[in-house]
Each structure stands twice: as C-alpha cells, then as structure tokens.
Amino acid sequence: MTNSPAARDIDTSRPHSARMYDFYLGGKDHFEVDKQAAEMVAGIFPGIFTCAREVRSFMHRATRVLAQEYGIRQWLDIGTGIPTEPNLHQVAQSVAPEARVVYADNDPLVLKYAERLMRNTPQGRTAYIQADFTDPEAILGSPELAGTLDLNRPVALSLNALLHFIPDDWDPYGIVNRLLDALPSGSALAISHCTGDYAPEMWAKLVGIYEAAGTRAQVRSQQEVARFFEGLDLLDPRVTLTHRWRPDEPQGTGPELTDAEVSAYGAVGIKP
C-alpha cells in the first residue's frame, strides 16, 4: 500500500467489508486483518466465495441488459468498492462507448484506486465522488455528478452488495426513494442483496461477525428486497437469486449452484 493521503486515512486495525469482499473475489487489495475476518466468515459459510462471484456477475449482466435493451447511457453506482475488472463502466462502454458513469463510495481505499475507475473510452466519461449512501444530498449535489450526468435523461442507479450494510434504522428505503426521485422517467434501479432466506441461523452468525468488526449489517428476505422496487416496473424474472437473473448460459449448462450457496437476490426495475 502507498503512503498517499488516502492510504494514510485507511484503518488497518479492523476488517473492512469492501476489503473482505475483495478477498472473496480473489483480489489482492486487502490486509491481514481483512483476510482473517473473511476466513472466519468462510469457515461458517464456504459458499461466500460463490455468493460474491455471483453478485459481481449479476452486476455485469444487469448493466449489459440496461445498455443493450433499454438504451441506458448513464449510471450512478453507489457503494462502488475496490475496483475489480471489468468495472461497471467497462461493461457499459463495451456496449455503448459513450456511456457515462459516476462512482460513489465512502471508503478512502476506493479513492486510492479512483484513477483506475476513471480509465474509459474516448467517447465516454467517468467520475468519482467520495461520499456516503446515507447522505444522498451530498451525492446528488456534487459538482462531479453535475459535470458528468444529465439528470434530465435516464440514469441507472446501481446498488450492488451495498444495502445489506444499511440497517433499517438508517432508513434505506427512504434514501433509495430520494435518489430515485431525482431521476427522470425511464431511469432504472439495479440491486443485489444478501439474504438469510435459505440459511437463517448461519446468516445470523455472519452478521454477528461483521458487527463485531464495526460494520452494521442486515440481510433481507425476498419480500423486503422487493420493497425497494415499489412503484417501478420490475424486469423479468423480477426479484430472484442472482445466478437466476438472466444467466449468460442456459440453466443446467453451468456449474451446479445451490440456493443456499448463492444467498443473494438481484433485481432491476424501470421508473415509469
């Protein structure tokens, strides 16, 4: 790790959810404390590596579907996390080179990698905001967003592997509604979210590990995830496990995955 100002702000004494996610995905941008916590999670839930991989794959497919089938050319991705290629803008710009993406995250480690996030096609544009999901006004009012996205044209709000770190007492439904209210008709919402529906006792233990490390967490049921999409037109197959949301390969041709291994819902909705 470098000794940049962003790096100096990074707390290496406690595990961090974004760095643990990097470990699950096989990345190298984490510390020993993150590895130890992630291995503790994996000891209880070996499927966490599958869960993380399928969540990431869902983001890729949802981005392609919105670009190819719905003509979306702008994204606001909150809770970006440590860059893992292909990043959202690379997927979007592979379909539409002119696509524009604003990333937002509250982790100083992501700021360290902001340059990687902003390498895009000559026609496209990307920007990065260091901001927190729980402060939507700071995101919506940022000069970076205003200089990159046109809020008079459809924008896809991408919340991948984020909302299970936003407990109900932080008003996640209200915040999502506030963000969507700022976007015009034809905009989209894409969410992936861990669930305890298939192994509730195990997920209660996992939430306990994260909270002991100082990260609030709350997994949600299928109905609770669907509530984020109230008033939107859900795309088929609606709210389903991430590996079943428009898979690239027909069911039965890829690796056999159990519902409990994946334990994450994905869905995409369009604002009327």
Brief overview:
The protein has 13 helices and 8 strands. It has 272 residues and is an alpha/beta fold. Strands 1, 2, 3, 4, 5, 6, 7 and 8 form an 8-stranded mixed sheet that branches.
Features:
single chain, 272 residues, alpha/beta, Rossmann fold, 8-stranded mixed β-sheet, 13 helices, 8 strands, 40% helix, 15% strand
Structure description:
With 272 residues, this protein is an alpha/beta fold. It has a single domain, classed as Vaccinia Virus protein VP39 (Rossmann fold). The protein is 40% helix and 15% strand. The chain is built from 13 helices and 8 strands. It has helices at residues 5-8, 17-24, 32-44, 48-70, 88-95, 108-112, 114-117, 136-140, 143-148, 172-181, 200-212, 222-226, 259-262; strands at residues 74-78, 100-105, 125-130, 156-160, 188-194, 233-234, 240-241, 264-270. Strands 1, 2, 3, 4, 5, 6, 7 and 8 form an 8-stranded mixed β-sheet that branches. 44% of the residues are buried.
